[in-house]
Amino acid sequence: MSKTDTTENTAAPEEAARAQLSTAPREDTAVGGPTLGVVGWVRWFWRQLTSMRVALILLFMLSLGAVPGSLIPQTSADELKVQAFKDAHETLTPLYEKLQFFDVYSSVWFSAIYILLFVSLIGCIVPRSWQFVGQLRSRPPGAPKRLDRLPAYTTWRTEAEPEQVREAALTLLKGRRFRAHTAGNAVAAEKGYLREAGNLAFHVALIVMLVAFAWGQLFKSEGGKLVVEGDGFSNTLTQYDDFKSGSQFGVDELEPFSFTLDSFNGTYEKNGPQRGTPRTFEAAVTYSRGGADEKAVIRVNEPLKVGDSKVYLIAHGYAPVVTVKDGRGKTVFHGAVPLLPIDNNITSTGAIKVMDGYRDKNGKKEQLGFQAFFVPTFAGAGKGTMFSQFPGLDFPVMALTGFHGDLRVNSGLPQNVYQLDKSKMTQFMDASGNKLAQRMLPGETMTLPGGAGSITFEKDVKEWASFQISQQPGNGLALTGAIAAIAGLTGSLFIQRRRVWVRAVRGTDGVTVVEMAGLGRSESAKLPEELGDLAVALTAQAPPAPHADPEAVPEPAEEPAEPAEDPAPSGEADK
Amino acid sequence: MILAATTNESLARMSDLLIYSSMAVYTLAFFAHIAEWVLGSRSKVGRTAAALTSRTPAAAPAAVTVQVKQAGGTAVLEKPKVVTRSAAGTRDVPDGPGAAGGTVKGDLYGRIAISLTVLAFAVEAAGVVTRALSVQRAPWGNMYEFSTTFSTVAVGAYLGFLVAKKNIRWIGLPLVTTVLLDLGMATTWLKTPSDQLVPALDSYWLWIHVSTAIFCGAVFYIGAVGTLLYLFRDSYENKLATGGNPGAFARSVMERLPSAASLDKFSYRVNAAVFPLWTFTIIAGAIWAGDAWGRYWGWDAKEVWSFITWVGYAAYLHARATAGWKGRKAAYIALIAFACFLFNYYGVNIFVSSKHSYAGV
Ligand code: HEM
Fold first, then answer.
1. N or C: which end of chain A has fewer CB within 10 A?
2. SS3 string of chain B?
């Protein structure tokens, strides 16, 4: 190692020395492949893959590959939007599907990029770590022959003996926490190993984060549940409205707990231009893990934590309470019907399904279905709009149309509870032959024609809240990785790794000549500054001798260029 | 409640007034900078050409010099002089004298411009603070508020560099120009009356995540200006070095800038220094997303573009450490990375539907 340092390298001695201030892999400049058969090719490929150049290209490809996913709807984020996009772009869709553009982040090509990058990363870190350990165990390399060629240099003559100067320099440098030793006529010192350590820690932390992320994806579970005020949920698979889990997730890993939604409270800006903007959403719940009941409030940024699970408040809406009676006045349905919001003012739609218990006036079993359109704040009759004016429950109105026949809930096909399958249903007609539809205030009843019964919009509108219940391991590991990454990065970017040499030899006139030089991995204004400080400190032990004989000291050929005139270029530190 | 509302409203009006006033002062600073450039002498230019065309290397391998003054018989020791040399292969070109061109007159206008910038900064900062008071929360709830805070922080960072005696006066004119553009856009297109946040934004993570994001943006911006000027200045130096003859205008402007090597180093330091903070910003955002939406990373548009920006800057840092990628190629990567940052801010907020759509843009 010290071989290169001590040889006179006329081209760029400091470049050669500088390269050893880091464990960065050396670039293969040869472009052609090897001629050594399969093993040679594999080796060559591996060297390419773990080179900085390829890492750079892979980083590029990774960011480029992430772009389409932000511009094209993603299945993982919003399936409805993906469907809408597919419907609107018939020619693009097959192409996009082939390119997996609707699932960019789990696509084969995106995975290939980041797996290659991380293989490259591992292939890069391991040798670099060994190299670094080697550097730590060996001593800083001896001084190059021509110290005056290094980026920062100073010299003076002193009456002190060369050994004295070297000893003083050694003590001084060690005192400033340099690793220093005397090699020949010079002291060699190095400092700032934390840069390399930080850099390696950062790259290792990246791997830790990726592992944590992958682990989380494999073992996570995530499900949604809509709960109307007064109702409850218990954490078993059958209770979920929808449920997704990683491939390694086992159902028995679901945290056993249950909760009841006591009340939901939403408030909205009443006045001003932002009227209607949500202000608070709070779901008051009572939960239990098999033991005593506990109360909690779930807010948007404050999930409920139960064991490994977290319960997030995701959305909310209204659930008007309705009562349906058959022709004989028997109640066949009574309950709150959650409706889905379609705009920010919570104009909502949904379906009321009466599946069993209803008989028509002839006593024949039938099913009823109602399409509901609900606004929490009605604009007023004659205003020409049925859309809600405000998300709060100021002037609730519900419009219903009724159907009878077969809801096809038993057809074997999964059915959306918020939509009616009208293919086997007949719409109720009023006396004059128009489709039956009625706009109702709370407390009002719509009578179905021909003695088919009635539906009442009760003076009770409940609210519902939907929750996401997630369980994801690896979060702690990811966070640890993230913190380590930042710490490592900070060390890597703010600490300079640098070497200092102090040479003291007896000059031809018998006076000791001290030479000091510094070398950093990158040019830094701090390096000459530090060298200046060290030199000043050293002059305490090795005071400069007066210029006895100007001839004895080689003068610079000409005025040094500008930067040289500024020993501590703090004013130009950003250069 | 009503009383509070009226004081809030008058605070909000005061904030608007302060922002408009700061724009007026920035405009004056803008003209003072123009005067600095126009009236600053061009006579002192030509140092670059001299350095590049003279045959002797600018920094001779100098030796020596602890100078000892003989004063009244006692030797008074000066600090040993440290001779610096640039790395082999880099041009050794002195920095330009700055916009003032080294003239007293130009310098005077430059100082006036900086004083006006300080005043405008104070007024704008007051505008941001009153806005915060009027809404009683961090003033980062919508794009109008981001934009005003963003330019305040960018100017603050610039003034901080000046106070730290860094060679950064050359950025004055481009900075004030962009600040005016930014404020112009904010007050005309992005103006949102002050109000409360939607519940999702109501979290202490807003303070942590958004403040660091704004700070990173402001500093990345300064780095990007440095990079852009580096590219211009580098072409200029290349042209001179290969015997070309740049036009009088290019010569006059470029000569006053710091050398390409200085600009390059400046932007590298700035970008490298905020990169860990940007990493932290993304991680803080992920933690917040974990609390608000039940997943810490969901490839939402905003998350994707933050990630792209991050990878872009990481690529830049790698390029700087990779043979054959230093210099102009690395500079292009830095500019692309900053463009990604800008797109994440304007593009994603306005054109892409994202979970991060803010109240009133
Ligand atoms: C497989 C590939 C990788 C290799 C071979 C590699 C190699 C290196 C090396 C040698 C350095 C030190 C440069 C120096 O000392 O100035 C470095 C720095 C760095 N690397 Fe990587 N790295 C790889 C992957 C990554 C990845 C995936 C990232 C993150 C996205 C990353 C981010 C960084 C950063 C931010 C620095 C600091 C730059 C600096 O010190 O100036 N690296 N990398």
1. N
2. CHHHHHHHHHHHHHHHHHHHHHHHHHHHHHHHHHHHHHHCCCCCCCHHHHHHHCCCCCCCCCCCCCCEEEECCEEEECCCCCEECCCCCCCCCCCCCCCCCCCHHHHHHHHHHHHHHHHHHHHHHHHHHHHHHHHCCCCCCCHHHHHHHHHHHHHHHHHHHHHCCCCCHHHHHHHHHHHHHHHHHHHHCCCCCCCCCCHHHCCHHHHHHHHHHHHHHHHHHHHHHHHHHHHHHHHHHHHHHCCCCCCHHHHHHHHHCCCHHHHHHHHHHHHHHHHHHHHHHHHHHHHHHHHHHCCCCCCCHHHHHHHHHHHHHHHHHHHHCCCCCCCHHHHHHHHHHHHHHHHHHHHHHHHCCCCCCCCCC
ipTM of the complex: 0.83
Residue A38 identity (one-letter amino acid): V
- Cα dihedral A93/A95/A99/A102 (nearest 10): -10
A63 touches chain B (CB under 8 A): yes
According to DSSP, residue A258 is labeled E
Closest CB from A14, A277, A570 relative to B198: A277
Q: Tell me the CA–centroid distance for residue A142 and ligand 1, in Å.
A: 28
What are the chain A neighbours of B82 within 8 Å (beta carbons)? 152-154, 528-529, 531-532, 535, 564, 567-568
Ligand 1 mean position, distance from CA B322 (Å): 10
Chain B touched by A572 (CB under 8 Å): yes
| CB-closest option in A274, A312, A554 to B359 | A274
Assess A562–B contact: CB distance below 8 Å, yes or no. Answer: yes
The encoded tokens of residue B177 equal: 């120009």
Q: 3-state SS of chain A: helix, strand, coil percent to 5?
A: 35, 30, 35
Non-local CB neighbours of B89 within 8 Å, separated by 6+ positions: A12, A15
**A470 touches A158 (CB < 8 A):** no
**B2 has a chain A CB within 8 A of its CB:** no
pLDDT > 90? residue A287: yes
Q: Each residue of B263-317: pLDDT tens digit?
A: 998 999 999 999 999 999 999 999 888 887 777 888 888 889 999 999 999 999 9
Q: Which two tokens stand for residue B3?
A: 């009383």
**Residues in contact with A507: Cβ distance below 8 Å, sequence separation at least 6, in sequence order:** A157, A513, A552
Touching B: A residues 508-537, CB under 8 Å: 516, 523, 528-529, 531-532, 535-536
Q: Which tokens belong to A400? A: 């219903």
| Best mean pLDDT range from A265-279, A478-492, A494-508 | A478-492
How many helices and strands, by DSSP H and E, does chain A display?
Answer: 11, 22
Q: Using CB atoms and an 8 Å cut-off, which of residues 288-347 of chain B contact chain A?
A: 288, 290-301, 304-305, 307-308, 311-312, 314-315, 317-319, 321-325, 340
Q: Enumerate residues lining ligand 1, CB below 6 A.
A: A 22, 24, 52, 55, 59, 117, 120-121, 124, 199, 203, 206, 489, 492-493; B 272, 311, 314, 317-318, 320-321
For B202, list phi and psi in degrees, rounded to 5.
Answer: -85, 85
A506 touches chain B (CB under 8 A): no
Is A10 within 8 Å of chain B by CB? no
Q: Write the pLDDT tens digit of every residue in A473-493.
A: 888 899 999 999 999 999 988
The two three-digit tokens of residue B57, written as one number: 């290397």
> What is the tens place of the pLDDT at every residue in A10-37?
344 455 555 567 777 766 555 555 667 8
Q: Which residue has a Cα nearest atom 24 of ligand 1?
A: A121
Q: Closest ligand 1 atom, CA of A22?
A: 15
Q: What residue has token string 């180093």?
A: B265
CB A312 within 8 A of CB B293: yes
